[in-house]
Write a structure and sequence with these properties.
This protein has 1 helix and 15 strands; from the N terminus they run ββαβββββββββββββ. The chain has one helix at about 20-25; strands at about 5-10, 15, 30-35, 40-45, 50, 55-60, 65, 70-75, 80-85, 95-100, 105-110, 115-125, 130-135, 140-145, 150-159. A hairpin with a 4-residue loop joins strand 7 (about 65) and strand 8 (about 70-75). Mean pLDDT is about 80; it is low at about 1-5.
């Protein structure tokens, strides 16, 4: 399948996309997932990678995301586009967001910025997991902003 997906990008963040393309039209659902944080999450200082947990699932066609663990378990094999965005409530020091799918990883170090996002296009097998891990070493616990400013999404591109 070849498609051009119209998007609106504001400040480096995708704000809108063609909804019909994402869902595969009115009769053919494309596997998609989108969730946001509606409450802050406390991230302990210098404690390995902690899964970003989004409490509000907006769309999950494969019913594959666990709000309690922050893990999306792939139910449809193929090429996927995975994204995560994060905004910290404050703190100065190292802050890292890592996107992981199976054995593929993409990290972004946002030491000088409170907001960042990353994306990864990868082949995923049924049972592979998609996580957004966060790490910070600012000297104390730091909260994520919550209020819909942190998110995870996945769109199945094709076989």
């Amino acid at each position: 399948m070849s498609a051009v997906v119209p998007v609106q990008v504001v400040g480096g963040i995708v704000k809108a996309a063609d909804y019909n393309w994402l869902v595969g039209g009115s009769t053919n659902q494309r596997p998609t997932f989108f969730a946001v944080q509606n409450a802050a999450q406390s991230i302990a200082n210098n404690t390995g990678s902690i899964h970003l947990k989004c409490q509000s699932v907006i769309r999950d066609t494969d019913v594959a995301y666990s709000t309690s663990t922050g893990i999306y378990t792939v139910a449809t094999a193929g090429m996927w586009s995975f994204t995560a965005t994060l905004q910290w409530a404050g703190g100065a020091g190292t802050r890292v967001l890592t996107l992981g799918v199976g054995s593929s990883y993409q990290s972004v170090d946002a030491t000088a910025d409170l907001r960042h996002g990353t994306a990864l296009i990868a082949y995923a097998n049924v049972g592979d997991t998609f996580v957004a891990d966060v790490f910070q070493s600012t000297g104390g616990a730091v909260n994520t902003s919550g209020n819909g400013l942190c998110s995870m999404s996945a769109v199945w591109i094709g076989s």
